[in-house]
Amino acid sequence: MTLATTANAPITSLRASTLSTLGLGSPLDCFRRGRLPMTPEEAVSAVFGPPDRRGSLVISGASGIVGAGKTMQLGSRLEPFGVRVVALDMPGAPDGIGRQYPGLVRAFGRDGADRVMSNITRLTYDGKSLPPQLREFDPRFLLEAIPEILDVKRSHYEAFRAEYPDLEIRSVTSGFPARELGVGVAHPAFPHEINKMWEMVEEPGRDEPSKIPALLWALGLVPVPVADHWSFVLDVIFCGVTQAAIRYHRASNMPYWKIDKWVRKILGPNPFRAHDAIGAKGANFLTWSCLQHLGEHYGELFTPTTELVERKESGQNWYPPNHLRPMVDWELDAAEQAELRAWLVGPMVQMASLMLEEERAHPALANAIGETCAQLSHGVLALARGLGLEGSRQVVSDYHQLHPAAAEGAWFPEALTALDGPAGQQLYVNAEHDGTVGSLTLSREAYNWDVDAELNRAIDWLKAEGIERVILSGDFHLATQLVGADTAEFFPALDDEEQGYRVSHAWSTTARRLHDEFATSVAFLHGKRCLGGMLELVLHCHYVVAESSVSLGFPEITLPVVPGMEGCHWPFRRTTADHWPRLSELLFSGRPVKAALAEGWLIDRAAPLDEALASAWELATGDGIDRRPLAEGAVETSALAAAPEGAAAAAIHGTIVASLSVPLAEALEQQSRHSGRFMPSPECRGGVVGQTRNRVERV
Amino acid sequence: MSLEPMLPRPRIPYGTWGSSYFPAWQQSALAEVNIGQFAGEAAGRIYGRRKVPVSAIDYLVIGSTVPWHWKFWTAPLVSACFGRRVPGYHVEQACATGLQAVLLAGAEVQAGREVVGVVTFDRTSDSPVGVFPERRAHQRTQAIADVWDNFGFDPATSRAMIATAGNAARKYGLDRREVDELALYRHQQYFDTLESGFLDRILVPLEVLGVNGRSIGRVDADAGVRPLTAAALAAMRELDRCVTSGTQTHASDGMATLLVTSREQARALSPRPEIDVQFVAKAEVRVAPAMMPEAPAEAVKALLQRTGLSLDDIAVMKNHNPFAVNDALFAKSLGCDWRTMNRTGSPLVWGHPQGPTLTRVLIEGLEEAVDLGGGFVLVFGCAAGDVGIAALFQVSEGGN
Fold it and tell me: Which of A68, B66, B147, B169 lies in disulfide reach of B242, CB 3.0 to 4.6 Å?
């Protein structure tokens, strides 16, 4: 029986979905409608016209780092729809597009790369008047990627506006607000060929939202609406962390290469390495430009230091050249480390308060931008939330002791109280319901302690709302895949078995709530992949439905770790022994399987996207549809094949046997003990997790 | 003679200085490094420890004697290694380098510079082989090891460095037993000072990295310095009059750094602004050929005459003593007790890296004066070419 009462019922949310910021409804709507809010064809037609009258995309400054990268990213996505791409630049501009060809070949094969390149027409202009032949291409959307000089940009827009009054124009500017430019903003993040995130500001004075954010979303990119403030979100954070690191250099003399390691350990990014990798000459200028504007508006927190000014002018790298590789190491005692932390974390929290005060973006989006585009291990809001209100104020106070001028502006301690509300508490997990069916949506691709806590809160909320049916999925916006556990959370376990036990036990306990506390739980998977801990999580749902092309796998053995969220027994308990060789293959090879081939023994249904969406809704609203049983007693394991060679395989095999040989109620303990025990082993410490820890934490 | 200066006296901000340890040659990771780069990076670390931002430094005087890769680029390169590329120049005056560089930095301050860094350094390990084309000679090119071949031959006198010590010992009738006793006493002074923790205020342990970013060694001791016994000293073969391997210094590697500035800037930079360390006077002499150990005594005499002071006015005396003969000769020449000088150690014990030697000597002397509550600090030493240099500093106050 399908519940008919929920089809058009109003939706109640724990907090606003990020999808709704694009005007695309909510995740629960996608299930209720059995389709995504918009298809790529619909989105392309809305911007470029119908197939028989397709206009073109023009990218000006297409030979630059940003322009060339975005020519590739958008060109490869628009070519199948017959949208021509015009790459416009000045005569004599270095060829940035030709250099992209090898990357295109790697991504799409030679034929695919040739198709993308053939669809790009390069035109030159003198910077003042547009080339007459441009009209033949019927421009509909201009992405401007010319140098960061306001007057030059404005005259560029005027030239286009004069010829093409209805043209959609977006600037890739990293600093100027739309109100200064007079056009909308689509600010992308490095590396431009592959980073899907774009900060979006609509054209000033526009009443209706444009079709551009939906176009990018439908093409598989991640548009993020941000408020029209100087430098938006990403460059406040990225330039801000760079500035904080430079200021610490000023205070301590610590060389930039060494500060970079500390910033990576404490916050996540390597700001100086990133500048050098992007190209110090351009990156130094852009960082200076952003900070210069921010400094004018918000004061000393952002005002560029003389070191940055000098490097802006010289284009000098921050890391020493190879022939002057660092020779003297820097050790910090506890007091020095505390001071360093204040210099770095204080400004980040201060910036978090600015984000909240000015409502620069939906909190989940503002937080995600930092993680996705600025390499923060925890977004600025998650960082401040983790410190707590008092802790946040204290670290900013410590920072202001060291840098009193920073206290004179851009510090809004009261704004941090917003982190206590649902929007601040649920940065990674949201929940909504229509009175009968609820949805749990993950917007972080890797599971960590924050996600775990938020998932528990979201489940609590749904339970309190009386919801007994739930669909667990990505958020159709930020999370385009679910990659597994955030292995950084395993670092403490490499030295302490109990820490490994703790993480495995706690996260498994959360996962079990999906099974134990709902009458019906459905996991819905789409996007590229669902792996490791995320797959273990979703397998706890009563049903798992996936888009056929999704890759499913347990790559833990390649790290190696022992799957800790009951992956070593739960899927075995849900299928018959004749399917165990397939599960063993997944666990012992680490190779993924396409969802279409996993139906019946790992997941319940695999189908094309719209069909899978409808199926998930059908299962969530249905009653007693073909639920694969879960063996709750001890399970005979003689049918299990012997373990392949190797310590990790032996550990995984041992975990399977131990956790299957006891009743379900005891299996979690067995699984967690085994998982935790393997973490401090030489194999794990010497593997990917251990090496990553060394790279991140060795300063 | 009045002590009133014609120009404002330069100052050394107390507590902003530092030195690496001086490990004996080939006995530490410093044998592996480009010493100019090391000195620059180490200076940045030392200033960091002392809470002095390198952004405060607007000029740099560097001092070294042994050629090093890229020495052509002098102070801007060394300062680039501590993170702020400033103008400046290179000073070289054999073993007087470490003091001469400080004095020249003082002249720069008097000429209007705000804060002048002094970074002195040398790596005697694997001292470079110099090739000197001599177009008139039968041997068109000649390879020399910079340290050892120069020690062995003064082209002006055709004598070796060690011979100057023997010559001086003979001239002054020095006694081998007294010189041995002096060397033993100097070692005891050093180890007592080391034990007291005094050197922890000056010497900064430094981890040295290889090209792969991994440590290749920690420089945290004056490696190669060992306690001596009277018997062992007495048993040593005399290489020249009163000169044995126990009564002469050894080659070592290292760096030292301090700042020279105005009184106002010194107050701003020093963790103890009430302590005023100022330049007073300098003297420099040359003595008879191959009589180098006599030169410091003559320089001090000239300095005392110029300032109107006597040794009784001096709180701290520090002599660069590559040979124990130097100290014995000085005491005999000026009628003082050698036990009252070099109280915290001296190059005779902790080695002879040339460029930074007298900088460390000076820093030790200033720290000692602060412990004593202030006073005049007399720093002097010999240098190749039978030269002696002496300089007088005044520490206003201090105390532990």
Answer: B169
